[in-house]
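Sequence in, structure out. Go.
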Amino acid sequence: MFTINRKTKLIFNFSAISIKDTKAKDKKPYTIFDQGVNKYIVLDPTNVQMNDLDWSLSRAFSQLKQPTNIDLNSFIKLIKNTDVEAFLVSSFYNYEIVCTNPYDLHSKKIEPLAHNFIVNASVYKKHERVIKALIEASNFSRKLMLMPNKDLSPKNFVDLVIKEFKPYEHLVDINVLDYETMLNKGMGLITAVGRGSIKEYLPYMLSIRFKNTTNEFTLVGKGITFDTGGMDIKIQSYMLGMHMDMTGAAVTVGTMLALCKLGIKANYGVVVSLSNNDCGPWSYRCNDIYKSYNGLTVEISNTDAEGRLILADGMTYAIRDLKAKRLATIATLTGAILVAYGDVYTGHWTTEKTLGDKFAKSAMIVGEYTWPMPFHREYDDLIHNYTINADCINCAINKSVSSNTAAAFLHQFSENKPYMHFDIAGSSGRNFNGKNHPIPIMLRSVVNFVITNYAKRK
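Output:
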């Protein structure tokens, strides 16, 4: 593990230098380069963007092959227009993402490189509580993301979350809906997706709210604990890694865990919809029609577009049962967003510009990239005009705008509440040294957004 201000210095060093430094001659901002045992990142003190710096830190950490002195003080001197706390969180967060594994099952445990962070002791002490809360919450989310389906069924997910929140029972209320309860409530979409699974893998829904608060904002996370594609089964190369199709749910519970660790009560709640998408004799099929919890009927046009189905019933539960006034969904929803934005940006839809602008500002402060995507009536038509037997289909036949039509499908379940949607299918994983590292993307952004806008003031 890393150390802070250890007395015995290491041989290798990593620090920031100004673009005006002679060593940085002819180099652009955020360039990473080596000189002997020293590694540098070039910064322009007049224009440091936290999201660019965050991205560069992850690349730099992936290049460190030996235990290294990481001089955070050199960065702090150059980022006067940037939030110091956000930078410190970013530094330790990216170390964890690149260098550690919270679910290491190697026969011989792989120890992370023991880097030494050099930082002013009083500055670190001032921000230590926030750093630890966000890192611990992120690592819990990462652990869930890394667990294979044999170890993480929907029920296992619920059990692990309840155990993790045990110390915070005085702060939050947790409610769990099992398969039979959801059937009886009329949640026809999530139960359709999960009907093909064996008993031990049937779907669940879980909600967490702070006690004695109003539900001003609710985040609904997609938790497909494994996605075979259902009857529209995926080919092998697309099925590999589908144990992480529950990343939205992992991030969602992580946001609440971070707030609990910080001791911050907020007018905020979370819902996670959990299911496998299995292929079996009882699995749902194309042209089946199911009635959603809010009453809309959906004809299945693609069983591999299951995430939006379980989210839809989760949204209605948030609105009608938990009385959410505003809501957002977060999901590894479409491969198309990866084509559009790669692993850099999170696609961000919003029905209300003010709400979207507030969130974008929160994301920029902590260092996570988002970029707006459109809602449009033409996309609505693509999911409504195909079927003559139901209100809509779950997946547009025209695949050219599938991220937008997926968002359009979800939008109709927002019941005119201010609504945002985040597609993290690309941004929740990053390749370093040939290995994919799961990233609980948007966790820091949501926490900052909730604290800024919905924290209860004493």
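Check: The domain at 12-119 is CATH 3.40.220.10 (Leucine Aminopeptidase, subunit E; domain 1). The first strand starts at residue 3 and ends at 4.
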